[in-house]
Write a structure and sequence with these properties.
Pfam families: Alpha-2-MRAP_C (PF06401), Alpha-2-MRAP_N (PF06400)
Order of helices and strands: HHHHHHHHHH
CATH topology of the largest domain: Receptor-associated Protein
Structural class: mainly alpha
Strand content: under 5%
CATH class of the largest domain: Mainly Alpha
InterPro entries: A2-macroglobuin_RAP, Alpha_2_MRAP_C, MG_RAP_rcpt_1, RAP_sf
Shape: flat
GO molecular function: heparin binding; low-density lipoprotein particle receptor binding; receptor antagonist activity
Number of strands: 0
Largest sheet: none
Organism: Octopus sinensis
Protein name: Alpha-2-macroglobulin receptor-associated protein
CATH architecture of the largest domain: Up-down Bundle
Helix content: over 70%
Distance between the termini: 51 Å
Length: 344
Amino acid sequence: MSTFTFYAIYFFSLVFAIEANKYLKDKQKVNVDANNLMYNAAIGRHFRMIKVQEIWNKAEKRLTGQPLADCYAELKVQDKLQYDLKWLKHKNKHKALEKEHEVDTQLMTIARKYDLGEYPGMNKLNIPDPHINKDAAKLKSKHLKKLWKQAHYSGFTDEELSKLQDEFLKHQQKLDEYEKMKEKLADLEKVTHNNLGSDDELRLVHKEFKVKNKEMKAVHRELNKKFDGLTKQVNEGKVDEDFTDFRVYQLYAMAKKTAMSKNELENFKEELKSFQQRITKHETLKEMVMQSKEYFDKQVDDGQYPKKHTDLVNKANHYEHVVKKHHNELYHRVDSMIFKHTEL
């Protein structure tokens, strides 16, 4: 064998080995990252991609209850899309550039939807405000605008939001009428100060001013009352009464983002109701342990509680383990479904 042939065989063998190793690494990458996610959740990191985690960090500080759970579910989908985009950049840079704008726009739209502030590059993406449509743009009052944004993540359906928008627009019209009343009253007040007519004319102007001023105050009170009503309506939101525990509703919100059929989602919902019953039972047991401790604290001097109490403590601890295990199983199932079925 010539020296040239030897080096040629060696070179191609080396190239083949490198490519085979690269292929194996790419194939195993998804499983490695899926395992790492368990560790990330344990240290407070819920998402694979840093930019998604940063938005979630803000959401945890600004949102509560069901809006927070809904935001989490939407970010889970976006996390997978950002993850796919990252790997697409390694394989097909041209296609990745086409998809990057679309994916980043979706992510920043979520940030705006839940009022989580601006992010670098958001303005360049030219993202429309998801809270403002053609009619909602007619809202001029900054208090109404702020309340309208809040209404968007209070759990209302599109139909309920549409009806609520009509109420907001009617309130804006009354505010406009009130502003015109104020202008007319201001003009009338100037007349009372600058009137050069007779005393009778001056008395009539003063009398008219008092009547108009009284009417304006009554309108102002009604406007405040109506705004308080709108605020209460938005703050109470459309709460899903089936799931009062945050963990359970979060699982349901995530499930709605999967490829489950209507039938499968209904079955999963029933499963979640059973899970919530377990949570309720655990909460009841914890309360019973506290009451038992308070009762026996008065009788126990040596720190040795009677068997009745220790059995109750053990039962509560066992149920805590059951709830955690059940939650982990349900979470892993829906999280895996989002990861598998969400694609660019």
